[in-house]
Amino acid sequence: METRFQYDLHDKQLRFHVRQRAITENKLEMKATGLLDPGNCNASYRAALKQYVSTSGGEFKDSGSKPLRLGAGVAVVSQLGGVTAKPAATRGSAAAAAAKGGAPAYIPLLTVSADKKLALLEGPDTVLTLRAVADFDLTARQLSLFLQARENNWAATLREGRVTLTYDL
């Protein structure tokens, strides 16, 4: 399980983020993400199942660069803490819209995504990477973009017009 602290620069809140991911030999990815906000005692999660296809080249474990991946799948997003809770959707803009509108507790998503990771600098103790993801929610017909610059355990992320800083534990 991956854990990290996440600080949102817009609302100046520190949150605790957890994620568990499993990938099969056939590149079927199962991912569960949770976001805990101790400031207002809210929690939310996203569970997704996606099938990915790499367009070119192999993936090397020790390299920061990854080939372009295309994926399609389904996800369920919850909003356990009520209307003011931040959705844990990593790239699900429908969940953010639902949080504003007081929508149902569980939101199904059909998504198509493209994911590319590029190593900008690789050294013996440092790997600086840039990752870009475009995710299209088929049911809401909405595109969401995700950009992340990462250096070892630190990351700056731009998602849906908001910047967050994270530190991996």
Largest sheet, strands/sense/barrel? 10 strands, antiparallel, barrel
Spans of at least 5 consecutive residues whose pLDDT stays below 50 are: 80-95, 97-104
Determine Rg (CA atoms, Å): 16 Å
H and E order: EEEEEHEEEEE
Shape: globular
Verbal overview:
There is one protein chain. A ten-stranded antiparallel β-barrel has the order 1-2-3-4-5-6-7-8-9-10. The protein has one domain. About 14% of the residues have low confidence. It is mainly beta and 169 residues long. It is globular, with a radius of gyration of 16 Å. Strand 8 and strand 9 form a beta hairpin.
What is the topology?
Blueprint (H helix, E strand, L loop, with lengths): L1 E7 L4 E11 L4 E10 L4 E13 L11 E13 L14 H9 L4 E17 L4 E11 L4 E10 L2 E6 L2 E7 L1
Antiparallel strand pairs: 1-2, 1-10, 2-3, 3-4, 4-5, 5-6, 6-7, 7-8, 8-9, 9-10
Provide key terms for this protein.
single chain, about 170 residues, mainly beta, ten-stranded antiparallel β-barrel, 1 helix, about 60% strand, globular
